[in-house]
């Protein structure tokens, strides 16, 4: 491609403009934040689903097994202290927050201990109901996440002559992507963790260099995974076609797309610290909940805007290059 062709190409979508458009869309359609707002309110003021009673019922048996396995008493005590400090704080309702497609949540699994109304109600799971609760909440999270992504994506496509994605298809593709995403995460994450653990045993400096290299190379994985669901909700593709479309977009726009993803992550996690400043038993937490729900929904809308505009730009560039390329005899 010569210089004249490059000069005639339209500029790619801007990161800041995409984020601005996303915020404008959500500000115009404020009801888009309803699902994350309701989830945050439930996790804050609703009952807690805990498993400390289940842990206490099996604690004696676990200690006996560890002792028979030759584990030192001080290590067992250290592990028990850790578990006794963490287990009573975990709210299993947080499982409703699924990834990569899910409703955003401000609160961590063990974040909230108090509410403005005092101590919240506590529900305990049993050994028989634990897996059932996890399956039910995960499935409910997939359904809610699919509806949430579908509604936000539709707002970004409202001015275009397209039909909204069917609800059944949105939920089905959400479940498929979530399952494939989990399998792929284990397939990639477990070998990387094992390699890092082995290298760390030999040389910490080399392990640090490996972590740095993996951090730089991770964008080749993070970017297509980040935009994987977008092809389903914007182009109405299936899960497999969507990941191929995401890989193709990454191939031509990796520097810009990686900066967009990094910007979204930094804004999300940075502002979460701001939203989490009020104590859990203060009504000022309402401000943080509203701010989190608005910003995360706006950033999700911005990601759909960026994906939509980037694919339109790539298509126009490809068509222009085909027109400008010399015809072969």
Question: What this model shows, in words?
Answer:
This protein has 329 residues and is mostly helical. The protein has one domain (3-51, 90-323). It is 70% helix and 2% strand. The chain has twelve helices and two strands. The chain has helices spanning 3-8, 15-28, 34-45, 52-68, 73-86, 130-156, 167-202, 204-217, 219-226, 230-234, 239-275, 285-324; strands at 48-50, 122-124. The protein has a two-stranded parallel ribbon with strand order 1-2. Helix 6 crosses helix 7 and helix 6 (130-156) packs across helix 12 (285-324). The longest helix has 40 residues, at 285-324. The protein is globular, with a radius of gyration of 24 Å.
- Order of secondary-structure elements: HHHEHHEHHHHHHH
Oligomeric grouping of the chains: single chain
Main beta-sheet strand count, sense and barrel state:
2 strands, parallel
What's the number of structural domains? 1
Q: Average pLDDT, to the nearest integer? A: 85
Q: Which runs of at least 5 residues are low in confidence (pLDDT < 50)?
A: 1-6
DSSP summary, beta strand count: 2
Output the number of helix runs: 12
Distance, first to last CA:
19 Å
Strand content: under 5%
Spatial order of the strands in the main sheet?
Answer: 1-2
Tell me the structural class: mainly alpha
Overall spatial form? globular
CA-atom Rg in angstroms: 24 Å
Helix content: 55-70%
């Amino acid at each position: 491609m010569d210089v004249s062709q490059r000069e005639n190409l339209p500029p790619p979508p801007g990161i800041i403009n995409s984020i601005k458009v996303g915020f404008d869309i959500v500000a115009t359609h404020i009801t888009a934040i309803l699902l994350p707002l309701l989830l945050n309110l439930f996790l804050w003021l609703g009952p807690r689903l805990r498993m400390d009673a289940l842990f206490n019922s099996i604690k004696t048996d676990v200690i006996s097994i560890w002792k028979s396995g030759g584990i030192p008493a001080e290590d067992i005590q250290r592990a028990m202290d850790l578990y006794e400090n963490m287990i009573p704080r975990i709210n299993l309702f947080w499982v409703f927050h699924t990834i990569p497609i899910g409703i955003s949540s401000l609160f961590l699994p063990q974040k909230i201990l108090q509410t403005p109304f005092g101590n919240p109600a506590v529900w305990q799971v049993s050994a028989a109901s634990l897996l059932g609760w996890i399956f039910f909440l995960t499935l409910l999270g997939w359904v809610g996440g699919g509806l949430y992504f579908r509604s936000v994506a539709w707002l970004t496509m409202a001015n275009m002559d397209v039909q909204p994605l069917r609800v059944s298809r949105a939920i089905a593709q959400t479940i498929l992507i979530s399952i494939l995403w989990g399998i792929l995460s284990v397939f990639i994450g477990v070998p990387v963790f094992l390699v890092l653990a082995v290298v760390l045993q030999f040389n910490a400096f080399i392990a640090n260099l490996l972590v740095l290299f993996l951090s730089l190379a991770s964008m080749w994985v993070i970017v297509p995974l980040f935009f994987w669901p977008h092809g389903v909700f914007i182009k109405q593709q299936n899960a497999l076609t969507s990941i191929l479309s995401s890989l193709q977009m990454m191939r031509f726009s990796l520097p810009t797309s990686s900066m967009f993803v990094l910007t979204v992550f930094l804004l999300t996690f940075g502002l979460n610290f701001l939203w989490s400043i009020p104590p859990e038993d203060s009504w000022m937490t309402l401000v943080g909940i509203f701010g989190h729900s608005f910003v995360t929904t706006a950033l999700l809308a911005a990601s759909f805007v960026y994906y939509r505009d980037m694919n339109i730009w790539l298509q126009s560039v490809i068509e222009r290059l085909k027109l400008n390329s010399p015809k072969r005899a």
